[in-house]
Amino acid sequence: MNFALLSLAIPLFCGLLLLLSGRALRTRTTGFIVIVSTVASLVAAWFALQEAAAAGADIMLNLGGWETGLAIRLRLSSLSALLLVFTALMHLLIGLYAGLSRDGIKRDYWALSCFLHGSLAALWLSADLFNLYITLELLGLTAVAMVALAGPKAYKPAANYLILSLAASLFYLLGVALLYGRYGELDVLLLAPRTQADVITRLALLLMTTGLMLKAALWPLHLWLPPAHASAPTAVSALLSGLVVKGPLFILWVLWSEVAPPTLAQQIGPVLAIAGMIALTAGGLSAMRSPHIKTLVAYSTVAQLGYALMALGLLLTWQLPQMHIALWLFVIAHGLAKASLFLAAGEMQSSLGTKRVDGLRGATQTVPVAMFAFAVAGGSLIGLPPSGGFLAKWVLLEPILSEPGNWPWAMGVLLGTLVSAAYIFRIVAISFDRAQINPLDINPDRVGHWLALLPALMVWGMALSGEWLIRLLAGGPV
Amino acid sequence: MTPELLPDLTLSLLLLIMAWGALYAPQRSDAMTLFIAFGVVVALIWARLDAPDLALAEAAIGAGLTGVLLMHAARALPDELHQDYRTASYWGALGFTVVASLMFLVHLLYDDSLFNAGLLDTESDLTPRLRTLADAAVPESGVEHPVTAVLLNFRAWDTLLELLVLLFALGGLRQLFPSGQSDDSATTASWPESMTLMSAWTRVLAPLLVVTGGYLLWRGSSAPGGAFQAGSLLAAAAVILRLTGLLPPLRWSSLWLRLSVVAGALFFLAVAAATAIWGDGWLTYPGAYSGLLIISIEIFATLSIAITLSLLVIGEQEDLRS
């Protein structure tokens, strides 16, 4: 457990000390310090993962040594350890890009990204509904601050994001208050056997689900996401789409798969799964029609979250625990692919001097590496074998296809795949249009382009460790 | 019918009227005043519900600082916003309230599980199990007041994260003031100079606020009070001093200011790490020193809360980016 806490404490300490140091350090030095601390946090998270995998069961820690229920409990499961590693890895990849690419980034980005890392780590480890609320607040506030890093043009999306995020937090908090009033417990594992399908529980779960779906931008509560993610600085967009929306999704998963009584979970399951299917299609269609590169990538986040929502819905409908493997594989594959997409999109925008999709004509010739990164990451979103996206989709499809009665759900996955292929291939097709090349605005930044490719290569590498990942998520021996 | 019912009903009705007025008052200044009054009524209700800690915090933050924040913000806005949509949102709010309450009541009538569980039965014992647990553990916590024991010992991790929430909010606010551009013309004018009465009154009030804040902090270990309440009182003192021009800008470039902003969270986190490395675990205070540790954490937290809150309320370009 101490390794997990180390992985959580390092970024928080680093962020606080950076805030304290003010302008004493140069921006480059600041970036270097943050990258070193992220590496340290990654190593600690890796050891925590080994510890969790070796333990075989969840490791619980009663903070303060108080009795269960009185103390806040932290839980280190193999899933939360994996998410710790994933968070640190994403921060490392995006931090390297932010520090080494030519455009650079404002000094405040570094402290805020440390805080974001710490908040996410606290969220993955928490097993207490009220503590999860505070981590949600932390996550929302840092995410809003990071959107505002882009300057005055991002203030409006950031303000909308802040207000919606606060409203969503209040929904969640009201639900927690109702549950506490009804059962007198806040601990997830203590609540789990006690919850009953009565009116207060239903109301509480409904409120919390609304709040969390709003925060995770799950269809139909996703409208704030595209402007906020598209107007943030490139590195921030990658963090927001790749990591931040997964935090509320984690709480939603904990809430329905553990806290909610199974009868209620079975009732809500199909609703969530259908919302996921609609998200896949509607988000994909919006991405297909979007005139701007970054908005396209942002809408693709809405669409891809549909897969996760569908996996969650089917997990609840059929009470099939192995569906959570598909859910978390989607989250990891999407995070890595989306980081690459946003970084590549940002690099192409600055090299070609245009925000529009039409401006990408001939991009295979002018910015080949960034375009390659975009296409490779897009391949994982579509689910081409042997990428991480394919792995996740395979695990999702296996139980759907094994039972003829479940085949209608497969249509949803198929439709989603076709739409994702359509918007990715739209970009790729335009970039091969070498007849009317859109000339370069400035010389491309080679380092930045290669760093944008790195997460995309990793998501294809996920297939190599597929068996290990599936066993880890299944909680069996690794 | 108990004699307390009348004041209780009056308070609840007052709360609803204040809320409605704050939302739908035609003048912005009326709406702000009603919002402050709303905060006071909420504080009274908390006091009535035997939660003096919450009442103190609500009065200081919900009514006091938020009121100043609103008035400060209102000065930067054009005089009146267009209010064409008001009638529509009025009926919308009313309709939503009625439909939501009806749905809940209907649901309650059809679902008798609550009656079976004895929840609506006034005779049953509603004391939560956690309350009993907490009361039993207070003597070992190092402080005498149960609320302080919960905040700084049983659920200290929540409080640590709450301190970070304040800090991150300040980090977000700083993004609204771009660095490097230090034209003083952009900053809004200070409050009218001719507030003789106000500044004379402030000179008396501020020391009193500081003393009261210190008292609340010291009292927190045995009675209602503590870091958040004391910090918000100190912040109120700093805010009125700053608004009347008696306090120079709190400059972010000063190391002392940055140190006082991060001190609370940094010290708390350091305690957590130290207990994890040398002690029995993350935030498990060693028994003999827990009272001392809690008091030191509260002192640092009060300082951070006071400075952070006052920066959040009155922070301008010269405070945050100089």
UniProtKB/TrEMBL annotation, chain A:
This is NADH:quinone oxidoreductase/Mrp antiporter transmembrane domain-containing protein. It is a multi-pass membrane protein. Residues 126-414 form the NADH:quinone oxidoreductase/Mrp antiporter transmembrane domain. It is found in: Cell membrane. InterPro entries: CPA3_Na-H_Antiporter_D, ND/Mrp_TM. The keyword Cell membrane applies. The chain crosses the membrane at residues 6-25, 32-56, 76-97, 109-126, 132-149, 161-183, 203-224, 236-256, 268-285, 297-319, 325-345, 366-387, 407-429, 450-470. The lineage of its organism: unclassified sequences, metagenomes, ecological metagenomes. GO terms for cellular component: plasma membrane.
TrEMBL record, chain B:
The keyword Transmembrane applies. GO terms for cellular component: plasma membrane. Residues 13-78 form the MrpA C-terminal/MbhD domain. Residues 199-313 form the Na+/H+ antiporter MnhB subunit-related protein domain. Keywords: Cell membrane, Membrane, Transmembrane, Transmembrane helix. It is found in: Cell membrane. It is a multi-pass membrane protein. The keyword Cell membrane applies. InterPro entries: CPA3_antiporter_subunitB, MnhB, MrpA_C/MbhD. The chain crosses the membrane at residues 6-25, 32-49, 55-77, 89-110, 160-177, 198-218, 224-243, 255-279, 291-314. This is Na+/H+ antiporter MnhB subunit-related protein domain-containing protein.
